[in-house]
Amino acid sequence: MDTTTITLSTKGQFALPKKIRESDALDASDVFRLDRLAPGKYLLEKMTPPKLPKAKLRKDKDGLPLFSVPHGSARITSEMIKKLESETI
After folding, report:
1. What does the radius of gyration of the chain's CA atoms come to, in whole angstroms?
2. Which end of the chain, C or N, has fewer beta carbons within 10 A?
3. What is the pLDDT at residue 58?
4. How many structural domains comprise the chain?
């Protein structure tokens, strides 16, 4: 187990060292859970993101492309549209 020292910023934030971020493939949008085990003792755990339903591109009854976006799916971005359009229907 590796041990490192980090400092709490004036805004109450921690920065994980680059070595750890790279070795664990951490991204800025990753979500963590912080458990307070006892005064001054904490456990930080990376959470597994929930699997969201994905938008799909299909053909409507007239044969025109139609985006099907299930409730709770991620917002559609222009990058997602390009990817969906490149897929065969």
Report:
1. 21
2. N
3. 79
4. 2
Q: Which pair of tokens denotes residue 31? A: 């979500």
CATH of residue 6:
2.10.260
The model's pLDDT over 51-66, given as tens digits with 9 standing for 90+, comes to 777 777 778 888 887 8
Q: What does the pLDDT average to over 3-20?
A: 92
pLDDT for the residue 36: 96
- Indicate the SS3 state at residue 23: helix
Residues 30 and 69 in one domain: no
What single-letter DSSP state applies at residue 24?
A: T
> Are 20 and 26 within 8 A, CB to CB?
yes
Clarify whether residues 3 and 38 are in a common domain.
yes
Pair 70, 43 in one domain: no
DSSP for 17-45, please give it: -HHHHHHTT--TT--EEEEEEETTEEEEE
Contact 42, 33 (CB under 8 A): no
Predicted local confidence at residue 7, as pLDDT: 93
